[in-house]
Design goal:
The complex is a heterotrimer of chains A (about 290), B (about 400) and C (about 290). Chain A is mainly alpha-helical. Chain A is built from twelve helices and four strands, in the order ααααβαββααααβααα. In chain C, the strands form two sheets. Chain C has a six-stranded mixed sheet with strand order 6-7-8-3-9-10, sandwiched between helices. In chain C, strands 2-1-4-5 form a four-stranded antiparallel sheet. The longest helix of chain C has 17 residues. The chains are: A mainly alpha (about 290), B mainly alpha (about 400), C alpha/beta (about 290).
């Protein structure tokens, strides 16, 4: 393996990891507040891919991107309103089944609306510009992805740590009932969480699909599960943890594929999950939860 | 009515039901070509019923949200397939990798192959249960889903091509001798699971589901109980997978995706979480209606539906919405409706029984009566409140 | 009384039991003994550490330090180790060297049954099934025999004993009702019946009179004495309902801030100035 090949794969891994990290943030934030896996998050990310295809057909790219982000946010908030909010007090299993149901619905809906054929993802010239250094050729999005991810993460961490909204979010994730008594509008905070999560998923989707060229109805489900694993690896509820988890999963996937075991590139993520759950069930940076009897 | 007489009536009804089923199956079996469509639906439904009951055992009765069903079905399908394909066809099927020598001449009858599938799935469940069953609900879900994907990857890996034929899968699996064979195996599988659920262990499962702290305080070992349920559930998921392979006459990893697990979950939820009869009904309903609603996937013109309209502009118009994929959209909306508005499913968590069926009209009447009473009470309360307000205002 | 005889008669012995959560010492150096056939009460104001001590006995927590013996055998033993050793704020560090833990189900198997402060029945299941499931632990069966009905004698015995228990508690008329639909007092009795179904030597009741009116409390104390005699039980009671405790307890231990402040008969404890001040906060008031 030559050095340039290694660098090339590393950059690919970082780029994929960046996209995963942005999606993983959505999982970790929703889990932090609602204690549920938003199974539909991966499919929201897939829908964002389709939104891009259809909006770029009529709009210039710099308008299309905000439109896509907005559309994904609206979709996410709608899902929360319709499928999760009515089950706030229901047993956890019902909420999880509801999330699976939404995921199932979005996949089938995409299959129906956009057909099962993979559709080619628009090539935004500014993202696709290719740099060449000797043997290595990278597109701009490959370099941009990890940088953008880190910038967004820093902004998000500042939002959670420094602003009033962030404080309310942290309060809700600790104890919703008490937060409500303290005058925090819990439903509003949950909506905001979905807004942030979906916006990041939309950005992640642009980074992810620009590198992969096609979108199809099921292209969200596995990356979605993997990003949840990334969130678990980082310690669920911990935003920087999710980002690091995303990078770990992305780099591992590229490494496994480069080593010639592409069949296992998806499965390996779950092997990673088993290992982390056995060794450190609370994730790399998670706090250990003590349950009271 | 005396208890004894009730018992006899129940027996007679049970016997009548079984006889009716057997006669119906016999009619189908008498002319398999004419009834091939019905036979397909019934066999598929029965197989999914086994899978749904096995999922219900772990999710509905033990309260552990395990989503590994597709993975275990995959194992069962491959094991059954590999062990039952005729020896002389093996070289042809494994033309790319060549079948492993030690395995090449081992051929078993279907029942033995299914039993081995169950055994292997049980052992694997026992092993992965050690780490996985200690996890809390959502972690368990994601870990078992992950397990399912790992299994799929392993069976699709060309490193094991000599055994599994990698992504090509195994084909030419001998079919069921007749419809009775399939229905009987499914029936016995479901019977065994329901007997376990009705036994002392089944009560322990429910205790763990309802309140694990209290169950533990009564001497029920949480881990062993969960593991028993997981092992039995996985073993029967393996049987269902094996039956599915025999039914489809092939086993390929692409069948056993997460979507299959979700599909079975739909049956369980629709039928009623925590009810064996519900799962069976759910399996038949989902499988049957997926067939009957196939027209939703076809494009129609109004003239196809109403021949009288042929030639008119309206007749030439296409029926809106009907297009490939619409059927599954309807199904997913149905799942959401059940989860959001009708979360008890068809039977709720109780079993369907003759008494219950006989009691339905009375129950409906009772419900209506209660609703009317509630409305009346509310009206009365409102009137009283209004009167009180008036009085207060007056003072 | 000779030493040997005393050792045989002691059912439960706590030695220097200490339980620390982070920096909070919830139970501090608690030693007590419960002898066969006694009704012993552990009392104390809210937050005194009663339930924590109780949870150590029933295996929910592993004690930080100290030992719990049941019928002469060590059930639980703890010693502060690792990170805990540095922050350990209790006493007798170094006296115990082992960490022995038994999970709640093993403790129940050993013969200690418990009830919960906030009733924990299986609300959706019938009263009968609630009691029957407690028989599961001691039944001679395995999944195979149970599935195929080869344990029908055992099953029959379990059902008969369950009926007997329900009859004893006057609950047999409600056997088919979902446990969650029963009135509060009945749920309490059902929970006790369920605990009795595990054939315990020692019955631990966590605030059995919580939420009861005086009349019900009075009935409850008769009921506790009755089952003690009928099932040859030893009873450990946690309560701050003084009426109940004073009436039936052979001995009382009173703790405050995790420490034992008094022990003795009802009269002795009731007149102990430390107990009075702990309950009424005398020192601050006067």
């Amino acid at each position: 393996m030559s050095f340039s090949y290694f660098i090339q794969q590393l950059l690919n891994g970082l780029s994929l990891g960046g996209a995963y990290a942005l999606i993983a943030i959505g999982y970790t934030m929703v889990y932090g507040i609602l204690r549920m896996i938003n199974f539909a998050h991966g499919d929201e990310f897939m829908m964002a891919g389709y939104f891009m295809i259809y909006s770029i057909a009529v709009l210039p790219w710099f308008i299309a991107i905000p439109v896509v982000i907005l559309a994904t946010v609206v979709l996410g908030v709608l899902i929360e309103r319709v499928a999760y909010r009515p089950l706030r007090s229901a047993p956890r299993m019902s909420v999880m089944i509801s999330a699976i149901g939404v995921s199932y619905l979005l996949e089938n809906l995409a299959n129906y609306l956009f057909t099962a054929m993979p559709q080619s993802y628009p090539q935004i010239p500014i993202l696709k510009h290719v740099y060449t250094f000797g043997d290595i050729s990278v597109s701009r999005v490959t370099i941009l992805a990890p940088i953008l991810t880190i910038i967004l993460t820093i902004l998000l961490v500042m939002l959670v740590d420094k602003t009033k909204l962030g404080m309310a979010m942290r309060a809700c994730s600790k104890d919703q009932e008490t937060a409500r008594i303290m005058g925090i509008k819990v439903d509003h905070i949950i909506t905001m969480t979905f807004v942030i999560g979906c916006a990041l998923a939309a950005v992640g989707s642009i980074l992810y699909f620009t590198d992969r060229n096609t979108v199809q109805p099921y292209s969200g489900s596995l990356p979605g599960l993997k990003c949840f694993v990334a969130a678990v690896i980082g310690g669920i509820g911990n935003i920087p943890g999710a980002v690091i988890g995303g990078f770990i999963v992305g780099i591992c996937q590229i490494a496994i594929t480069a080593a010639g075991y592409s069949v296992f590139s998806d499965a390996f993520t779950f092997v990673l999950l088993f290992i982390i759950l056995l060794v450190r069930p609370s994730g790399l940076f998670g706090e250990k939860a003590v349950e009271k009897v | 009515m005396s208890a004894n007489r009730k018992k006899y009536i129940r027996w007679i009804l049970d016997a009548a039901l079984i006889a009716a089923i057997l006669i119906y199956l016999d009619i189908l079996q008498a002319d398999t070509t004419a009834h091939s469509y019905a036979i397909t639906i019934i066999e598929r439904s029965c197989i999914y019923a086994v899978a749904a009951v096995s999922m219900n055992l772990i999710i509905g009765f033990t309260g552990q949200f395990s989503l590994g069903t597709a993975g275990f079905m995959c194992i069962g399908a491959y094991v059954t397939g590999i062990l039952t394909i005729p020896v002389k066809m093996r070289d042809q099927i494994y033309y790319l990798y060549g079948m492993a020598g030690w395995l090449h001449d081992i051929r078993l009858p279907m029942l033995a192959a299914l039993a081995i599938s169950a055994l292997i799935c049980g052992v694997i469940a026992y092993v992965i249960g050690w780490p996985v069953l200690r996890l809390k609900s959502d972690y368990l879900a994601i870990a078992t889903l992950g397990f399912s994907e790992i299994i799929r990857a392993i069976f699709g890996w060309d490193g094991l091509g000599k055994i599994t034929n990698a992504s090509y899968g195994v084909s030419n699996i001998p079919p069921f001798a007749n419809i009775f064979e399939c229905v009987a195996i499914c029936g016995v599988s479901i019977l065994i699971m329901s007997l376990l659920i009705r036994s002392s262990y089944g009560r322990a499962f429910k205790a763990v589901r309802d309140d694990d702290v209290a169950a533990e305080a009564m001497g029920i070992n949480l881990f062993h109980t969960k593991q028993l349920s997981f092992v039995v559930s996985s073993a029967f998921a393996g049987v269902a997978g094996g039956l599915l392979a025999v039914f489809m006459r092939s086993a390929v990893t692409s069948t056993f995706t997460v979507a299959l697990t979700y599909n079975i979950l739909l049956m369980v939820v629709l039928g009623g979480i925590g009810s064996v009869s519900g799962s069976i009904i759910g399996a038949f309903l989902v499988t049957g209606s997926q067939e009957w609603l196939r027209f939703l996937d076809k494009e129609y013109f109004f003239s196809d539906l109403f021949p009288g309209l042929a030639g008119t502009a309206f007749g030439a118009a296409r029926v809106p919405l009907l297009r490939n994929g619409f059927r599954m959209v309807i199904f997913s909306i149905l799942l959401m409706v059940v989860v959001l508005f009708w979360n008890h499913g068809i039977t709720g968590s109780r079993e369907l029984s003759w008494e219950r069926i006989a009691g339905i009209p009375a129950a409906v009447r009772e419900k209506k009566k209660r609703k009317a009473e509630a409305a009346e009470r509310r009206a009365r309360e409102e009137a009283a409140a209004a009167a009180l307000e008036k009085e207060v205002r007056g003072q | 009384m000779s030493g040997q005889k005393e050792a045989r008669e002691t059912v439960l012995r706590l030695e220097d039991l200490t339980m620390q959560f982070g920096g909070v010492v919830a139970v501090n150096n608690l030693s007590m003994e419960v002898k066969k056939g006694e009704i012993v009460a552990l009392i104390g104001p809210n937050g005194a550490g009663k339930t924590t001590a109780f949870n150590c006995i029933t295996g929910v927590y592993q004690p930080t330090n100290g030992r719990i013996e049941f019928q002469g055998q060590t059930l639980m033993e703890g010693c502060p180790a690792g990170r805990v050793a540095k922050s350990y704020a209790g006493e007798n560090a170094g006296k115990y060297t082992k960490n022995t833990h038994h999970s709640p189900d093993e403790i129940c198997r050993a013969g200690i049954a418990r009830t919960f402060q906030n009733i924990r029945l299986f609300p959706g299941q019938s009263a009968f099934d609630n009691v029957l499931v407690a028989k599961h632990m001691r039944a001679k069966q395995n999944p195979f025999t149970a599935t195929f009905g080869l344990n029908h004698k055992e099953e029959k015995r379990m059902r008969e004993e369950t009926w007997e228990l329900l009859r004893d508690q006057n609950l047999d008329g409600f056997a088919d009702y979902p446990a969650g639909s029963l009135p509060y007092g009945m749920q309490r009795r059902l929970e006790i019946a369920r605990a009795l179904a595990t054939d315990p030597t020692l019955l631990c009741l966590d605030e059995p009179a919580a939420g009861m009116n005086p009349q019900e409390t009075l009935e409850l104390s008769d009921f506790i004495c009755k089952i003690r005699d009928q099932y040859h039980l030893t009873v450990l009671l946690i309560e701050h309902h003084m009426n109940l405790v004073m009436g039936i307890s052979d001995r009382i231990y009173c703790i405050d801030f995790g420490r034992l402040i008094a022990e003795g008969t009802a009269d002795q404890v009731a007149n102990d100035p430390k107990v009075i001040s702990a309950y009424l906060g005398m020192q601050e008031v006067v």
